[in-house]
């Protein structure tokens, strides 16, 4: 089968298209024929090993000391079950699925094997495979942190990075939960973010949201580009700060600030769960939220796709077509 191989850290050019052996599912695994995957900011950082200094050692130990431990990158998949192991109960051949796995990777390929107990669910029936691939990373991350922050109706929520993979879902989900939303993005994305449900949009190229004196019940930085001290000043006395890309140094600051104030400070990584994918599936099918796709590339143009994502200005998701399907 065709797959993208990454054998060293570096620029997008380290990604190479090669022929590799097709995987065989274990007893508890599902073999998925991949139609689409995505390029996320996380995969861009892992490929280039562009991480904050305080995260350097733990990241090297996790991802790989001298090169990536997993030669085939990719965490998101939308495709069709081709075969299942003898112990698999939930899925059968022909099932249309989407999944998000942060341990095995290997979705930049024509096939991958995923444990049945990983975050894998039936694809929403109302979307294409391309659209389905644009759901898991941003949707799961946004849902995870908003639930951690105990979001509820009537709260005033600020979402920073509102036009990115996580941001577009954070805006839509916050609206679904009944919040009043102030979104922060660049000039070119104001119209998009308003269309997703934001009540107010702040263009960060023209205005610093922390200088307005407004305070929020929840402040969600989806891209890790805000000033933590300034964000604390923009929170209400018992407000909640959410940070989806918190490095160890910031996590320590958050821990200390949480001990010395009545504010709740939550950072870290969203662990993909099947139940979250199912929630997103139901919301998509009910028309409550929708996937946002910026650009589409074939697998053969993975280098160009990574170059684009490296610029840091994508809107929603960048989708990779691995194999054609009549539903795409």
From TrEMBL:
Domain Enoyl reductase (ER): 10-320
Highest taxon in the source lineage: Bacteria
Transmembrane segments: none
Coiled coil regions, renumbered to chain: none
Pfam families for the chain: ADH_N, ADH_zinc_N_2
InterPro entries in UniProt: ADH-like_N (IPR013154), Chloroplast_QOR (IPR052733), ER (IPR020843), GroES-like_sf (IPR011032), NAD(P)-bd_dom_sf (IPR036291)
GO molecular function: oxidoreductase activity
Official protein name in the record: Alcohol dehydrogenase
Species this protein is from: Ktedonospora formicarum
């Amino acid at each position: 089968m065709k797959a993208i191989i990454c054998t060293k850290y570096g620029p997008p050019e380290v990604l190479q298209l090669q022929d590799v052996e097709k995987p065989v599912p274990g007893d508890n695994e599902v073999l998925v024929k991949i139609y689409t995957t995505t390029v996320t900011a996380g995969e861009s950082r892992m490929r280039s090993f562009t991480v904050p200094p305080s995260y350097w050692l733990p990241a090297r130990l996790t991802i790989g000391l001298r090169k990536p431990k997993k030669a085939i990158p990719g965490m998101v998949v939308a495709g069709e079950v081709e075969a299942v192991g003898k112990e698999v109960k939930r899925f059968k051949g022909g099932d249309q699925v989407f999944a998000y796995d942060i341990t095995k990777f290997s979705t930049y390929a024509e096939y991958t094997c995923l444990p049945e107990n990983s975050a894998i669910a039936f694809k929403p029936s109302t979307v294409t495979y391309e659209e389905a691939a644009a759901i898991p990373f941003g949707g799961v991350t946004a849902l995870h942190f908003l639930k951690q922050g105990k979001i509820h109706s009537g709260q005033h929520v600020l979402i920073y990075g509102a036009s990115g993979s996580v941001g577009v879902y954070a805006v839509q989900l916050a609206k679904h939960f009944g919040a009043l939303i102030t979104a922060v993005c660049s000039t070119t994305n104001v119209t998009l973010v308003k269309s997703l449900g934001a009540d107010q949009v702040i263009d960060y190229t023209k205005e610093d949201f922390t200088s307005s004196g407004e305070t929020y019940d929840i402040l969600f930085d989806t891209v890790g580009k805000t000033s933590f001290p300034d964000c604390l000043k923009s929170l209400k006395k018992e407000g909640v700060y959410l940070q989806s890309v918190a490095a160890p140094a910031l996590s320590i600051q958050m821990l200390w600030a949480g001990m010395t104030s009545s504010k709740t400070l939550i950072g870290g990584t969203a662990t993909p769960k099947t139940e979250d994918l199912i929630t997103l599936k139901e919301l998509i099918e009910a028309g409550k939220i929708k996937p946002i796709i910026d650009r589409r590339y074939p697998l053969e143009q993975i280098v160009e796709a990574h170059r684009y994502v490296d610029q840091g200005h994508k809107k929603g998701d960048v989708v990779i077509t691995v194999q054609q399907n009549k539903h795409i």
